[in-house]
Write a structure and sequence with these properties.
five-stranded mixed β-sheet, globular, alpha/beta, 179 residues
Length: 179
């Protein structure tokens, strides 16, 4: 049986252990970075020529305010902006930590060989946010992806990241990310 990662009510996997670096639970992160305000995504997955940085959430504030009473708009906008900033920070810090592990500034212990000694020259890097709301159906608003891309545009250029996905559990299942 392969590796299964349970996060935000989802079961990611089954993956071979040599495909996954669980950055959020790694010693490189938990030993000295987490307590200093550094954030990370859940895990990094190497699948063929693709490298995915995964974050999972059980909720997402709405950005579209057309049905929101005026007295609630400011608070809703603040929650949405905070959500964007948290995801952006997690992706930025994860990319930086992973890059520093590759540079051996941090230990490569317990990082699978496919993730520390690969030739990444032909690798497509993607950032993936899976939203798994506990109630009702949810479809990502296009503005969410656009806002994340806007805030991560520098990192996407530096790392030559082609894709940023904001997907539902159904879409994640279709892409064989979750079981």
């Amino acid at each position: 049986m392969g590796l299964i990662i349970e996060e935000s009510g989802l079961r990611f996997g089954e993956y071979d252990e040599d495909q996954v670096f669980q950055i959020e639970t790694s010693e490189q992160y938990t030993k000295s970075l987490r307590q200093n305000g550094i954030k990370t995504c859940e895990f990094i997955l190497r699948k063929g020529e693709n490298l995915y940085f995964f974050e999972a959430k059980q909720s997402c504030p709405r950005q579209i305010m057309k049905d929101i009473p005026d007295n609630e708009k400011e608070e809703k906008k603040k929650r949405y902006d905070e959500f964007i900033q948290k995801i952006v920070l997690k992706m930025r810090h994860s990319l930086s930590l992973y890059g520093n592990i590759l540079l051996k500034q941090y230990s490569q212990d317990k990082v699978p060989e496919k993730l520390v000694n690969p030739d990444l020259s032909n690798t497509q890097i993607s950032l993936v946010l899976v939203i798994n709301p506990q109630e009702g159906d949810w479809e990502p608003e296009p503005e969410l992806r656009d806002d994340l891309q806007l805030h991560l545009k520098d990192e996407m250029k530096i790392w030559k990241i082609q894709s940023l996905f904001v997907i539902t559990p159904q879409q994640a299942r279709e892409k064989h990310f979750i079981i």
